[in-house]
Amino acid sequence: MRIRHGVVAAIGLSLALSACSSTSNDNAESTTTPEASASAAGPAVDLRWRTRPDNQAEADVYQKISDEITAKNIGLNLTYEAGNSEGSPYQDKLKTELSAGTAPDVFWIPGTDVADFAKAGLILNASEVASAAGFNPADFYAGPMDQLLVDPSTGQKADGFVWGVPRDVSTFALYLNLDLIDQAGVDDPRELAKEGKWTWDAFQETAKAISDLGGGVKGFGAGGWWANWGYWVNSAGGSFFNEERTACNLDSDESVQGIEYYQKLYDAGYGVKFGEDPEPVYKSGKLGMFVNGRWATPGSREISDFNWDVAPMPTGPAPGGNWQFWGAYVINAKTADPAAAWKLVAELTSLEVQDQIASLGANIPSRTAQEAIDKFLTYTPPQNNQAFVDGITTSPKAEGPLWLGNWPEFDKATGDVVTKYMNGDITTDEYQSTICKVAAPAFE
Amino acid sequence: MTATMTETMEPVPAPLWDDDEGFRKRLRLVMAWHLFLAGACTWVLVNIAGAIWELDSLPRTILGVVGAVGLALNLLAVVLLVRRVRAGRTLSFLLSGVVALAAFVGVFVQLRIAEGLDVFAGAFQRAFPPLILVFVGVAWWVIARRVHRRLLPVGSLITDDDVNAGAVRMAQWLMWAGLAVVAVGTVWWLVLMRVDRALSYFWAAIRSDPVAFLLAVVLLALAGWALATITSDRSARYFAVENAQAEALAGWLYLSPNLLGFLAFFAGPLVFSMAISFYDWDGVTQAVFVGFDNYVETLSLAVAGSAATLPAGYTEIIGMPFSDSVLGATDPLFWKSMANIFLFLIVAVPVAVLSALFLAVMINAGYRGTKAFRTVFFVPAVAGVIGVTLIWKQMFNAAVGFINWGIATSGQVLNTVLPGDPFPDRIEVGWLSDPNVALLAVAIVFVWSQFGFNTVLFTAGLQGIGRDLYEAAELDGCNAWQQFRYVTVPQLRETTFFVTVTTVILALQLFDIVYALNQPNPVGYPDNATLTPVVYIYQLGFQQDSFGRASAVAWVLFVIIFIFTLAQFRMQRAEAEAK
């Protein structure tokens, strides 16, 4: 019995002692105590936040940024949670937590998901706290920002709505295997682009010349998801949706012209089979031009077997048309302190933080400031970072949520028909007559 | 256990402990507790019936059922306790247990422990060294205590005159020293874990809704007291509980952690999914009761003269044989997933079973090195499915994958002996991008991941076949094939049945391989060629936010698996009876 009392006493003593030892600092996380914050800016607010890093290096930088914001004594006591690095489980987990009421206060979501989250009441319209904090939407690229200022009832930009702030942007470029281009004896796409001669036809000729090298070498490769074939639709002057984004426009003549051209490139055997992952082919040195976003840069930097750089996407009948990919920091509708959550969003989208992330290679700052662009251009390789800047600034199409429709349903329905078409299972006429019919329920 | 559940409803005759007035008073309080619970249930029902609470249809239904059942059972418990029926004791135990569990969950939620654990999990890694110190201290204390016990057995006394007195004292000091190490380690651990932050976190959580927290704590205390009272020895004597029944109750108590886990994480979600299959629910907003609509939308089929004449909402899924008619469905993707999975069953299950049987027979033949092969064959069973599938994905790559390279190289070898070089230098089968072969790629990975475990099962079955049967067959002049056909196969019937049933069930639940092989394309790629029912459930639930439809498809799949398994059981039984 005495021993049992002893154990109880020891544990009690240890609890008492630990309660008195709360200010010990042994790492960055504990450099700021709630008391210290309180002395600077009132009681520190505990906030959890999450984003999806592209790799472990990015996750580490996000953790560091989180610790630094806490250490700034601005009344935020942050806990960073790294989301899954790839694939949809990030959203699956997030949705489950939102449903259960245990999601973080601030989190990142892809641009295409913003409307669904907002319409379901999962994220906060931060208009009031943003206005109070002097937020200026013009500091960010209009493509993504406008999609975050939408009135869900009309699907149009309106005053009084701020659903979040873009974390970063990205766009497609062609990752070039310079050695294969040299072997094929064709003009360098980077030079052609500078001369304004980097057109669809030039792209086709280059792809053909590289494929003709034989030995399994392919001219170009791209993923099978919507943005890859969508680029050719945009570049032809077509679009996914009508102007108001209330109906499908993939059956317009321009849209069909784009995808038909793209299909013929595959038909001719210039590309890695449609739907196959081209990344292993590119990394094995057997792919001349690899269509991918800025997020492919860290992986490319590991390549030592061949010389590589990036070039802009080829110009089609309509100028520009590259995608402006983006994701946004949004605020949980159930957060206890919206003002503090907005303060965190503002910190996470500051020029300094965006610059830290961009320096790792996978992202482009979402701020339009020249300073941000100038710094981004220095983050090499690739040497030709200007290709990304051109993609973002030359008549881009922002990937966007479908405020008056259901994006996942649209994506699924159209993706199935496009796969059939690209595999040659249906004709162009059948494609044109089907594509918007299957997409129609997404707008009902 | 069974005894408790099947207790008679007859009043207990001639109670032996009639004069336990103290317990009677306590029992009255327990009855009052159940009346209080019945009142709470009534209050819930009144609020729901009077639409005082603005509730969505799903929570209203759930709360209504819980309120009505709770009211009835609590009143029944009171009646049975008054009549001194033993079943009343069991019922009271169950009801108080459920309330205690609910209150515990309430405290858990109010303290935001799940989120708190998430927050403090990050600190655990850096706070690990002190835990080693705590472990050392505990080990030290245990050893010192054993030494102390050996020197001074429990119950014996020692005086200063005893020769062991010094050693006993030393052992005592060593025990205290062990405890001191534990205390130091604990303090260190708590400091590194930032226990002050934890306490302030919990305090903030309590302050956010103190009434709810207090209510949950009071309910937990009351339910705990009721449980202690109803399970006490005096209660057992009062209700003339026999030893077997008392032991049964204790058994239930010991089982309860597992049982509660089963109820919370298996049976609960099962019932919940059944309930929401009757709702239109996106997982977040208001669920709308739609009756059997989700099932109707999933299963509806119609035949028409042509695709154009199908009823509105129907899409052609197949042309009818020997006519121009077409079969249409309201949910063509569900039928596509079913067609895929049955094709998959036909291809993958026989190969997974027969290849395993073949390998098991080889291993059982006792050739040199078979033990090593047995281990090698088992590797797929213990390897992580996702990791292995990602390797397969690389191998399936049309342009640079090993599979196509291997086929092309084999063709080149054959070209050296065949006239006219019939095989091309390169082939580019789109294992993951061609709808015609994508399911085959999934089947290959499935068979590879299954045959190792099946081989072990067959090997175990083969080792159970008596040597004498083979000797008798040999004496009868059977060759090796005949021995296999007439001895091995019949003797392995039960193992084969088990292997087939489990492989079929696993095949019907196919998800992870498809999911990993399809990345970064959408699941079911290409053109839904690899869409399986479980993948479709995932798409409906998590990608289209249609949890009601997803649950309906899940239950349809359950019925199919059940019918399959039942049919296989029946066939096996009929076969056994025929023999």
Care to describe what's here?
The complex is a heterodimer of chains A (444) and B (579). Chain A has 20 helices and 13 strands. Chain A has helices spanning 2-19, 34-41, 56-71, 89-100, 114-119, 127-132, 142-147, 178-184, 189-194, 200-211, 226-235, 253-267, 279-283, 297-300, 338-348, 351-358, 370-377, 386-393, 407-422, 428-439; strands at residues 45-51, 76-82, 106-110, 150-151, 156-157, 165-170, 173-177, 218-221, 287-292, 308-311, 323-331, 364-365, 397-398. In chain A, α19 packs antiparallel against α20 (428-439). By secondary structure, chain B is mainly alpha-helical. Chain B is 72% helix and 3% strand. In chain B, the strands form two sheets. In chain B, strands 3-5-4 form a three-stranded antiparallel beta sheet. Chain B is extended. The two termini of chain B are 38 Å apart. At the A-B interface, α1, α4 and α19 of A face α5, α7, α8 and α22 of B.
**Which band does the percent of strand residues of chain A land in?**
5-15%
Q: Stretches of chain B where pLDDT falls below 50 for ≥5 residues?
A: 1-8
Distance between the termini of chain B: 38 Å
Tally of separate helices of chain A: 20
Distance between the termini of chain A: 73 Å
User: What is the SS-derived class of chain A?
Assistant: alpha/beta
Rg of chain A, Cα atoms, Å: 25 Å
| Relative helix content of chain B | over 70%
What overall form of chain B do the CA principal axes indicate? Answer: extended
